[in-house]
Write a structure and sequence with these properties.
It is globular, with a radius of gyration of 23 Å. It is mainly alpha-helical. The longest helix is centred in the C-terminal third of the chain and has 33 residues. It is built from 19 helices and no strands.
């Protein structure tokens, strides 16, 4: 069997690999297109520097689905453009799944550098979140702009990823038994990032991110039981909940001011639905009400327009032509085409069928990474981080089109890369068992951030 080759022998190559993956992650800190160029370089790095077994996924139905779905999106875009001249808006990003397997190969090839990637990224994140935090304005109840983003909502999403990532990064080092010095340094960095991320999320006044943080925090609290005895874990959870609830109580008046009008309007909508009114009637009544907050009013207008477009082609969507239909909707005068709902973004373009394909890729990714964790290929902490980030992001796109932002694009590429890296690792593990690769060689394949590898008798490793 041909194993995964180690490219860590040159400092220059290691530095370049670390830099590229840090750029892929950097969109959580700075809203830029750097991750796109990094992804392109990483794909070439995988395609032209790997042996066949590393860069292709023969017999993998998910890889075939991703490539096929991406190809269909590109083909449909070209046909629609040729026939109607309509370019749509950000249509190309729905072809991203075609890149997932190749980025997975790039991640496998550069797996040896992952320890440096995470340390460099979180060290940079700690510095940037300290520098960018608007301490006084947020403490005075003003809206803050977290990190270096174009919009406070985008910054809040970035802080959410930092919160989850820093927590599980520290947890991973305790799980795998890293040295005392390493654990201490990582814990210090994480203990600075986590409260500052929460503080900035609070200051952003993004209700959608606040909502998305609820399931993320629940998963984080539950994951504590993976590392500690039940009694100790309960004590830690109780202390954490007391601190969190105390902080919420401290700023409760401000939270009520921000959330209260939206909750009131939402309850009014629910009563109207119970009264038998149609969806469009309820939306029209709510947008016409003076009590509806401006941000909610705009979103309801956008969602009303989106529902009209979806109704025109519910199964396969309208492709590029969705934007043409948009101009004839009830609230066409609203000056936005960003729908502020990631699921509607998919439905207007590719319909229910496109949403199902996206869901299959998403759920299969979660399943495969969980399997990889169960087989000892990645740590439980890494798996929990993957799942928690995915759930957090899935909730954020309920009220914002984050999948059309740099954050969403980068998240999708990284989500796919990790899924296919784990898939290939599992396939190589099975192949190693069949060919008899040594347990020491197997450990060389399963590089950081992995927990104790699966050991098999009578195994050897061919470079």
């Amino acid at each position: 069997m041909i194993g995964i080759r180690d490219y860590s022998n040159t400092l220059l190559m290691q530095f370049l690999v670390v830099t590229l993956w840090v750029l892929m992650l950097s969109v959580t800190l700075v809203e830029s297109d750097a991750y796109r160029y990094a992804a392109i370089v990483l794909i070439f790095y995988a395609l032209f520097g790997s042996v066949r077994e590393e860069k292709y996924f023969p017999g993998d139905w998910l890889a075939a689905l991703c490539v096929l779905s991406g190809t269909v999106v590109i083909t449909r875009f070209i046909i629609d453009l040729a026939m109607t001249g309509e370019r749509g808006a950000s249509e190309w990003l729905y072809a991203f799944p075609i890149l997932f397997p190749f980025l997975g190969s790039a991640l496998i090839k550069s797996w040896h550098a992952s320890k440096g990637v995470f340390f460099a990224f979180f060290l940079l994140a700690m510095i940037m979140i300290i520098v960018s935090t608007q301490w006084v304005p947020i403490a005075n109840g003003e809206r803050g702009f977290p990190l270096f983003h174009h919009n406070p909502i985008h910054g809040a999403v970035g802080c959410g990823f930092l919160l989850v990532g820093a927590f599980y990064w520290a947890a991973h080092h305790y799980e795998v038994g890293s040295s005392r010095t390493t654990r201490a340094v990582v814990s210090i960095i994480a203990s600075i990032i986590i409260p500052l991320a929460l503080f900035n999320i609070y200051g952003s006044k993004s209700k959608g991110v606040w909502l998305a943080l609820i399931p993320a925090l629940i998963l984080m609290f539950l994951s504590i039981f993976m590392y500690l005895r039940v009694k100790t874990a309960l004590i830690v959870v109780v202390i954490g909940l007391v601190l969190l609830c105390g902080s919420i109580y401290w700023v409760s008046d401000h939270l009520v001011d921000v959330v209260g009008p939206t909750v009131k309007s939402t309850m009014s909508m629910i009563k109207n639905f119970d009264g038998g009114s149609s969806v469009f009637t309820v939306l029209e009544q709510t947008t016409a009400s003076q009590d509806t907050p401006p941000s909610m009013n705009e979103r309801l207008q956008l969602w009303s327009n989106a529902l009209e477009v979806i109704a025109a082609a519910p199964v396969f969507g309208s492709g590029n032509g969705w934007l043409t239909l948009w101009h004839s909707t009830h609230y066409a005068a609203i000056p936005y085409t960003l729908l502020h709902n990631g699921y509607f973004e998919i439905l207007v373009r590719h319909g229910l069928f496109g949403l199902i394909i996206s869901g299959v890729i998403f759920l299969t990714g979660l399943h495969r990474v969980h399997r990889a964790s169960s087989q000892g290929i990645i740590s439980k902490s890494a798996c929990a981080c993957y799942v928690t980030c995915a759930i957090f992001f899935a909730f954020t796109i309920l009220s914002n089109s984050n999948n059309r932002l740099a954050l969403g694009e980068s998240f999708a590429l990284l989500f796919g890369a990790v899924c296919f890296a784990c898939s290939k690792m599992m396939r190589l593990g099975l192949a190693s068992h069949d060919d008899g690769v040594s347990s020491r060689g197997h450990q060389e394949v399963l590089l950081y951030p992995l927990r104790t590898p699966i050991k098999r008798k009578g195994m050897r490793h061919d470079r």
